[in-house]
Write a structure and sequence with these properties.
alpha/beta, FAD/NAD(P)-binding domain, D-Amino Acid Oxidase, Chain A, domain 2, 2 domains, nine-stranded mixed beta sheet, six-stranded mixed beta sheet, binds flavin-adenine dinucleotide
């Protein structure tokens, strides 16, 4: 059996694991990143996009990654929240409240990039990086010692490391292996994601259109030739199942109705992907020489662009702790500092996302009115609007 020594092992080569390995490399820390899918490069269907908020962008700039991603980034300058009526006539806009980045003295709230494009670039960077060893493999056993862990891989490799980072997604093998419970709040909703081209220019606006069951959100994408946006359509499970039974033409028609003509005539230009809408937070984020990050630690409903932005905060915390005390990588002090700092922030963010989601989900008149009242209130009381926008930006 081949034996390898590395400072950090990262289980999971999704966006979380790839960004983490590049961040560690930036401060001279070697890592071994393992992904169990046979070849991530071939698995090119991810219709999601990520809105990178300012702190995330700044961190990615610091570690030298943003310059590679920025060519695909579309600024998000305005968030427009549209309340629409659920019955006939369709396309009836009840109210529209705009949040402009300029109101908080910024040019933009964030930058939106399609996940496929990001993953491709991150993988290229990882493959070129001498501090990172990336392999398609699977962990089959972990042995714990005071000063290290020994990790056994399916393809008969054995790795000695100071720290294991679990970045293996919402069904994390690492989390389960350490018997860490994750509280799952399963909502009666699902999300469909897809890409659209549209008649009108998006003018850097993201529309969050409310009716019943959840928001229909369009997020502007960069494309010099046609007007394109990514869509996240959250609705109750029954409605989503009905939508999935439609043929392409019928589905397109529903998309045009649901978007209340904000972007003109719309055509769906990608496959549809389905995601669960759950809140899932691990009871603790660490164990002996082990840290959970990304969806292995926290999966949130796709509202308010918090998911990967929270992960980038996890990675920044690991980066700061390693940079401050490289000798202490993975020791008890490091992992407990991480746990205390990150768990509080994650819980606060997940509570606020859940409240927003509850407001978006209900079709009751009273909730719809509350949403309208709340939005009108925010639109008029500038300091409250300012604080809320600042909080939302992490
Ligand atoms: C509809 C939707 C929209 C979103 N929009 C935003 C947004 O605008 N902004 C934002 O910040 N976040 C957003 N998010 C959240 C964001 O997409 C996720 O947080 C992020 O993609 C999760 O990345 P991850 O690397 O943690 O997990 P995954 O992408 O699930 O990656 C996990 C990786 O681990 C590998 N793996 C699994 N098990 C093992 C194992 N046993 N051994 C080795 N490898 C393993 C998998 O093959 C996979 O490559 C959204 C999420 C959804 C569902």
């Amino acid at each position: 059996m081949k034996s390898i020594n590395t400072e950090v092992v990262i289980c999971g080569g999704g966006l979380s694991g790839l960004i983490c390995s590049l961040a560690l490399s930036n401060i001279g820390i070697s890592s071994f990143c393992i992904d169990k899918s046979t070849n991530i490069k071939k698995k090119q269907i991810d219709t999601r996009s990520t809105a990178y908020l300012r702190p995330s962008k700044e961190f990615l700039e610091n570690i030298g990654v943003w310059k590679h991603l920025s060519k695909n980034a579309n600024p998000l300058k305005t968030l427009s929240i549209v309340n629409s009526s659920s019955g006939f006539p369709y396309n009836n806009i009840i109210s529209e409240t705009k949040f402009n980045a300029i109101e908080i003295f910024q040019n933009e709230f964030g930058w939106n990039i399609n996940n496929n494009q990001t993953k491709k670039i991150l993988l290229e960077l990882v493959e070129k990086d001498k501090m990172i060893n990336f392999e398609y493999d699977e962990i089959i056993n972990i042995k714990e010692f005071d000063e290290k862990l020994t990790i056994y891989l399916k393809n008969k490799k054995q790795i000695n490391t100071k720290l294991l980072i679990g970045a293996d997604g919402r069904n994390s093998f690492i989390r389960k292996n350490y018997n860490i419970n994750a509280d799952i709040d399963s909502l009666d909703q699902k999300a469909i994601t897809f890409l659209i081209k549209h008649e009108y220019m998006h003018t850097d606006i993201s529309y969050e259109i409310y009716k019943t069951g959840g928001p229909f959100t369009t997020v502007p994408l960069k494309n010099d030739k046609v007007n394109t946006s990514a869509v996240v359509w959250v609705d109750n499970k029954n409605n989503i199942e009905k939508l999935l039974k439609l043929n392409k033409k019928e589905f397109n028609k529903e998309v045009n109705k649901r978007s209340v003509n904000k972007l003109g005539d719309i055509s769906v230009i990608s496959e549809l992907e389905i995601f669960p809408v759950t809140t899932q937070i691990a009871d603790k984020l660490v164990d002996h020489r082990m840290i959970l990050i990304g969806e292995a630690a926290h999966a949130l409903p796709p509202i308010g662009a918090q998911g990967l932005n929270l992960t980038i905060k996890d990675i920044k915390e690991i980066y700061d702790l390693c940079k401050k005390n490289p000798i202490g990588i993975g020791d008890g002090e490091m992992v407990s500092k991480f746990n205390i700092k990150r768990l509080i922030d994650i819980k606060i963010r997940s509570k606020s996302v859940n409240i927003l989601n509850k407001l978006s989900e209900s079709n009751q008149l009273v909730i719809s009115k509350t949403r309208d009242f709340g939005l009108n209130f925010l639109a008029k009381v500038q300091p409250v609007k300012y604080l809320l926008m600042k909080f939302g930006l992490g």
